[in-house]
Design goal:
globular
Length: about 180
């Protein structure tokens, strides 16, 4: 049990320091440590928000909502990525992709203290931290996709974020069209 806990936190650190190495190790094993990582860090985040509300019921609701929301959003992101990767005729298991993409939940370990400090002090220092963590999450997801499908970082980026980029282009085009129209 002690070694499993130590491995869990060692793997969390590898998400920060060397995700390539972590994902090559985890690709060979068929466990769901990434999913457990996402659940753990979302539960901690929910617990922090819940403690600030000083209500046990709200704390439990926040924890459950954050866990389910994170798992579903990561499932949708992984599914879209998997479908786009199939266009490249990639061959891999969806469960592997989902598990590795869930490892980005470990990055919430950086946001958790920042949110606590921001809520207690009223300081908005957490906003740049969230932006940096989101950028690293993007990189970690691209590395995860590349580890599963092995077709390069460019195609991995497109598979991971093509739909998001397309939606942003459409929204910016609509905004630009609205500005020019008036």
């Amino acid at each position: 049990m002690k070694t499993k806990i130590m491995d869990f936190f060692t793997n969390s650190a590898k998400v920060f320091l060397n995700p390539d190495e972590l994902f090559s190790e985890k690709k060979a094993t068929h466990n769901y440590d990434g999913v457990f990582s996402l659940i753990f860090y979302m539960a901690i985040l929910g617990l922090i928000f819940g403690i600030l509300t000083k209500s046990v019921i709200i704390t439990v609701i926040l924890i459950i909502t954050l866990i389910i929301g994170a798992l579903i959003s990561k499932l949708i992101h992984s599914l879209i990525t998997y479908v786009i990767a199939m266009i490249y005729k990639a061959d891999a298991e969806f469960s592997q992709l989902y598990n590795l993409m869930c490892y980005d939940g470990a990055l919430y370990a950086l946001i958790i203290p920042g949110i606590g400090i921001a809520l207690l002090t009223g300081n908005l220092i957490v906003i740049p931290l969230i932006i940096l963590v989101d950028l690293w999450k993007l990189i970690v997801n691209v590395i995860a996709v590349n580890s599963v499908f092995e077709f390069g970082y460019g195609k991995s980026f497109i598979a991971s974020y093509a739909l998001v980029i397309l939606i942003l282009i459409i929204i910016m085009g609509l905004i630009l069209w609205t500005i020019i129209k008036f």
